[in-house]
Amino acid sequence: MTAPSKEDERGLNRRIDSLRRERDSIRRLLEQASMEGIRENVERLNKRLDRLDSELSGENGS
Fold first, then answer.
1. N- to C-terminal Cα distance for the chain?
2. How far is CA 10 from CA 13, 23, 49, 50, in A?
3. pTM over the 0.85 mark
4. Which of 3, 26, 51, 54 qualifies as a cystine partner to 59, CB 3.0-4.6 A?
């Protein structure tokens, strides 16, 4: 077996760097998706709390 040439090493390093960038990009996308889900849950909970507050204060007309 022969040792990898400098060009082979540079190509491998470029490929590793590219994979790292892709990994980081995917990680950011997953974090954004997670934050979007959290935001939607908070909005849903706020609406529910507003509705419960209205019911408790008698604003719903019942």
1. 85
2. 5, 20, 58, 60
3. no
4. 54
